[in-house]
Amino acid sequence: MAEEQDELTVVDHLTELRRRLFLVAFVFVAVLVGAFFVVDPIYHYLTINALSGVEIELNAFSFWDGVGVYMKIAMLVAFGITLPVTLFQVWAFVSPGLKPKEQKATLKYIPFAFIFFLIGVAFGYFVVFPLAMTFTGSLNKQLGLIETYGMADYFKFLTNIVLPISLLFELPIVILFLTQLRILNPKLLKKMRRVAYFALVVVSVMITPADFFSAFLVLIPLILLYELSVILSTRVHKKQLAADEERKKQYEQ
């Protein structure tokens, strides 16, 4: 009987997960359709250097380059707008296993996760991407190369820089969420600091062009975000220990 109940619980969880995934997919498709109406102004904005104001002349080397870039921009817009809905559905799926206070605390992370994502997008586009374009452009000139950019390659280069950085800016929110679930704690985070720093160095080198300054410019905010995560995790963990101690005293009485 207990085994049947466990199986039923697993089936219920899978059904609930499928329902929430379907809802996220539905919202994503709906937003994607609306995003097609804003692709054109976004495309023209992204093809102008944000710092110098110099228009970049792009070329299509394939019949499908225009369609591919059009779809990529629309999907990125839909991804960004759908992100809060996705985070809420994740919270709603795991919240039944949380205590009421933990449910309220973790729900507050959703708007901050979206804000940190936007900050990451802005940092990647307005700071790192112009530096990457300047570095690659100066190197091409030193080699005597004629710069003829394909639109597909340009947007691939742009997204490969901006999107990973924007996701990395979610680090404090993820660590706070895992701390709230008691999967992580500040002691473990401090113990993992050297490994985390090494991983951040590798990531910063991978998502930036091959010059020290750009990688260092990305690494500094990532380290600060990690240290901020440790501080916030410590505060949450102290509250958890205090609540556990209070419950223990009440139980002993």
TrEMBL record:
Location within or outside the cell: Cell membrane; Membrane
Its membrane topology: Multi-pass membrane protein
What InterPro entries does the entry give?
Answer: Sec-indep_translocase_CS, TatC
What residues form the membrane-spanning segments? 21-39, 73-94, 106-128, 161-183, 195-226
Which GO MF terms does the UniProt record name?
A: proton motive force dependent protein transmembrane transporter activity
Entry GO terms, CC: TAT protein transport complex
Tell me, what is an example of a GO biological process annotation in this record?
protein transport by the Tat complex
Coiled-coil residue windows: none
Keywords of this entry: Cell membrane, Membrane, Protein transport, Translocation, Transmembrane, Transmembrane helix, Transport
Pfam family of the protein (one): TatC
Role summary: Part of the twin-arginine translocation (Tat) system that transports large folded proteins containing a characteristic twin-arginine motif in their signal peptide across membranes.
| Family, as annotated | Belongs to the TatC family.
Known PANTHER family for this protein? SEC-INDEPENDENT PROTEIN TRANSLOCASE PROTEIN TATC (PTHR30371), SEC-INDEPENDENT PROTEIN TRANSLOCASE PROTEIN TATCD (PTHR30371:SF4)
Oligomer and partners:
Forms a complex with TatA.
Task: State the protein's name.
Answer: Sec-independent protein translocase protein TatC
